[in-house]
Amino acid sequence: HNHTSYRENLNRISLAPNLTENLLDHLNGQAVSGILSYADSEDTALRWGEVVPLLLVLGNKTSSANLQHERRHIILSHPLRRYLDSPSMVPELLELGKSIRDWADTRPERIALLISSDLSHTHRADGPYGYSNSSAPFDDAVENGLPVTNEASLLVEAASLQNEAKACGFTGLVMLHGAIKEANFKSHLL
Prior knowledge:
The protein has 190 residues and is mainly alpha-helical. The protein has helices at residues 17-26, 48-58, 65-70, 82-106, 135-145, 151-165, 170-180. Helix 4 packs antiparallel against helix 6 (151-165), helix 4 runs parallel beside helix 7 and helix 5 (135-145) packs antiparallel against helix 6. It starts with 16 loop residues before the first helix and ends in a 10-residue tail after the last helix.
């Protein structure tokens, strides 16, 4: 994977530093840490996984100007080890998702969890990562695993194909699964 950052001006993003610290305190003891760039004096570069969902939120024309102004954001990025170690991260990601939901349930604010979830990057031989015969089965396993009642499709089958499919969004989907597994949410494929 190429690890260069994607540059986009996100001055319209209002961050929530106090809420972020509260979440980090709640997640104490898990493999989660905060990031500051030079003692928080400089911007931190974001990658596609953070930028694309934020741009979609900012471009949401159905929100009123007041709601856009009141939104505060916490950006949670997964470590680079997700590229090679995603299957081994499944248990900790499920626990992280559950912990984030437990934390959100205690908050007086409305909390939304927006997950960036790129699927396989290996559908074409002329693509940046080449072709893998794992690409379509991986995407199918993720789609079949989206109802939480069929979690083995996501957590076992897709996990076993992830490294060959080169799907960096797998970790976010597993974390989301942990967040909604015990709640009575219904998923819909868009």
